[in-house]
Design a protein that fits this description.
Layout lengths: L4 H29 L4 H6 L9 H10 L2 H9 L1 E2 L9 H15 L4 H5 L5 E6 L2 E6 H26 L6 H5 L7
Parallel strand pairs: 1-2
Antiparallel strand pairs: 2-3
Helix pairs in contact: 1-5, 1-7, 3-5, 3-7
Length: 172
């Protein structure tokens, strides 16, 4: 069995992005029901040297739809600093979920050997598109999705592994 680049990336995004939307919605409801200020949530950090919740959610969108756009353009850079409120973060994840559906299997699989770069200031990391997606961006996507989940869980949101995993691709 071989797995295509499309299945490994877009298939994963289509599983996890809706799950993160659900986690964010459960987090919003929990905070509202328990008098927790959503502005405090978006600024919270797990530890002082870690970027806040807002960045984690932005990075989920950036390492999914943003990664596909970066591969298409040949250049990917860190996300811009967006001052979004909680609803804005929810909208950004919804936009990413909708956006990844615009990428066909044919289009994504054609990225396979294309050269591209990650650029951050003077740092330039050359990649082949598939290697960028599979070894750099996809691990980042999971890291930030997990951190988003963990931060809401830390605030007391009643979520579990099934909420994080979303709907797996079952053989039916």
């Amino acid at each position: 069995m071989s797995t295509s680049l499309y299945d490994a990336t877009v298939g994963t995004y289509q599983q996890i992005l809706p799950a993160i939307e659900g986690v964010l919605e459960k987090g919003r409801a929990h905070c509202e029901e328990n008098g927790i200020d959503l502005d405090d949530v978006i600024g919270m950090q797990l530890i002082d040297d870690m970027l806040p919740f807002r960045f984690q959610v932005i990075s989920v969108a950036h390492h999914s739809l943003g990664a596909l756009k970066g591969v298409e353009a040949g250049v990917f850079s860190p996300p811009p600093s967006l001052e979004l409120d909680y609803a804005g973060l929810q909208g950004l994840v919804a936009e990413a979920r909708e956006g990844v559906t615009q990428y066909s299997a044919e289009k994504v699989n054609a990225f396979e050997g294309n050269p591209m770069e990650f650029r951050m200031g003077s740092l330039v990391m050359p990649f082949k598109a598939a290697d960028f997606l599979l070894t750099f961006s996809l691990p980042n996507f999971y890291f930030h999705a997990t951190t988003t989940y963990d931060m809401l869980r830390m605030k007391g949101t009643q979520i579990g592994k099934r909420d994080f995993m979303g709907r797996p691709r079952l053989n039916r």
